[in-house]
Every structure is written in C-alpha cells, then in structure tokens.
Amino acid sequence: MFDILSILPGKKKLTPNDWRSFNAVCCGHRGHKADRRSRGGIKLDGHINFTYHCFNCGFKAKFVLGKRISSNIKQLLLWCGIDEMMIQKWSLESLQHKDLLDVTPVIKKIKSRIRFQTKKLPSGELLNPNNELHKKYIDYLHRRGINYNEYPFLVTPHERPITNRLANRIIIPYTHNNKIVGHISRFLDDRIPKYIKEQQTGYVFGYDFQKPEWSVCIVSEGIFDALSLNACALTHDDISPEQVEVLASLNKPIIYVPHQDKAGLASIDRALELDYQISLPNWEPEIKDINEAIVRYGRVATLLSILQSATRSLVKIQLKRMSLGKRI
Fold it and tell me: Which one of 42, 76, 135, 153 has the fewest beta carbons within 10 angstroms of its own beta carbon?
C-alpha cells in the first residue's frame, strides 16, 4: 500500500493537534491560487488511514484501509503524480485487507488495578535540531527509522562520561495516562549495558500511544519497536502477570510480535497461554524485530506484514517457529 506522507511533495510540519501542514497540492487544480502558506493538512489514523483537508480551497478526502479508494483520494493521488493504473492496484489491495481488519471478538471491558507512582526524569536537554551537540542523537534516531520530534526525547551531551556513565545517552520518558512514571536510557557508546531503565512492575511502554478506535494492539519486546510503530513494548522477553492486566485494560485483541531470535521464539508459549495472536512475518533472515523491519521496508509495509501474519493457529505458529529456529 502507499505511504501518503512520502507521496505528498515538500516539507510537512507536525502541529500540536496532530495535523501535518504543507503546501496543498489541490488549489491550483481547482481554480484557486497555488498554496504557498502551508494550508494543506494531513491527519493520520495509525500509519495507513488518513484525512486530507485543504484549509485554502476546502478540498477534503479520506482513506480507510479495507475500503475502495474514493474519487477524492484518487484525484489527490493524481495531483501528486500517481498514474491511474497504480491507483487502481492500490484500491484493489485495500479491499483485500477488509477481512484481515475485521477483528470482532467480544472483549469484556476491564480496568487495570495496577497503579504507577509519578517519577522524576534524570537531568537532560530536550532534543533540539538547532543545537549542534544534539546532531548525533538525531542521526541515531533517524537510522532507527524514528522521527525525533514525535516523542519528547532528552539527551545528555554535556555530562562527563567518567561520572557514573551519564554522558552520551538518549533518555526516553515512560508515561502512563500521560504522567511520567519512569524512563529508559539508551547509551550511544560501545559499552555494556546499552540500556539502563527505571521501570515499575507491570509497566507497558506505549500504552498511551493506543487509540480507542484502533481494532488491535501490537505488542513486542523492544522500546524502539514501539516507538517506530506506535506499538506497546514489554522491554523484556517475557510477559509478566501485571503487564497482562495492563494490556487487558486496553480492551482489544493483542497481536504479539516476538523478536525472531532464540529468546523471542521461546516467549511465544506464554503469549499462546494468554490467547494472544502471534505474528511471525516473513522478513529476511537478518531482520529480527519490528524496528529493523521498518528501517528496511518502511512503516506501512511492516504493519501490513504483521497484520497478515497474525494467527492463533497452533500448526501455523509451530511450523514458522521451527523454520525460524533452524536459522538461529
């Protein structure tokens, strides 16, 4: 499927209400002056569905995976230089995902009894693209397929490395219900451990990313898996009883995407006990997790591969696990 942000030309600025503004492509085609004031807007719902609105000429369009591409979306894509054959192909591909996305099990709504204490973050500077000392941190996130301005990362460029190893790290705040409850630091030097975290029992990173209208919740191990796909991260290769309770409070089916390594494959048994769907996409052998897949294939292709591979079939899961186990 297509990635609308890569198709639309020019720079896009993320606004506080989650719209991405840019020079609209529709105005000149509809008898108006060409937009030069970033009056076009795109709002994403997940990584595939989106709404387009031009605040200059009033043109609107909406795309929902599982439905045929509308006439307005078709017109928008044509204005972006996409040919009709490709648009027709994408429209058919969208329809093919209808059954995949119709996840309708009855989920009994529950509330988690787990409560997290508010915590203070370590000292650090909010990541700033205008600060030359922050460039290496932005470059690192870029290599991981993560936009630096989509999360409030902190960095420590001024700390002395000899004092308790506080220098050269990205600090990722932990939030739950929009309050700070801990953090994890990713160090950019070559020393071990790479990560140091303050994490309360039962905490699930990415809980606040989940939206009520999303039909499923994707869960994996790594913090960068979650950041790059708005998924949830356990931050270890097991699922604790407290984390089960927190995830259950989302009141939606869980798709568990284990890392494709020895520890990840071993964690599948626990996920099956919990009646989670398991997704083991057919990625290339060197791709072990969601974040690596996004760097290689992009967000949309990775998300679709996860949804297409999700299953509760023990036969399919065991066959795939055996196949992966042979190459580890």
Answer: 135
Q: What is the pLDDT of residues 298-311, one digit of tens each?
A: 998 999 999 989 99
Question: What's the rounded Cα separation, in Å, for the pair 328 and 323?
Answer: 9
Q: Report residue 203: phi and psi, to 5°.
A: -70, 140
Mean pLDDT for the chain overall:
89
Helices (H) and strands (E) in the chain, counts: 12, 14
Sort strands 254-256 and 277-278 into parallel, antiparallel or unpaired.
parallel
* Tokens matching residue 120: 């203070």
pLDDT tens digit sequence for 220-248:
999 999 999 999 999 998 999 999 999 99
Quick one: pLDDT band at residue 191, thresholds 50, 70, 90?
A: confident
Q: Which domains are present in the chain?
A: 4-101 (no CATH), 120-199 (3.90.980.10), 210-328 (3.40.1360.10)
Give the pLDDT confidence of 7-60 residue by residue, as tens digits: 888 888 888 888 999 999 999 999 999 999 999 999 988 768 899 999 999 999
Answer for the pair 47, 301: CB distance below 8 angstroms, yes or no.
no
Edge-to-edge strand list for the sheet holding 169-176:
125-126, 154-155, 169-176, 179-187, 195-198
Query: Which among 74, 45, 47 has a CA at the least distance from the CA of 59?
Result: 74
**Inter-CA distances, 235 with 24, 104, 158, 203, 278, Å:** 40, 28, 27, 9, 18
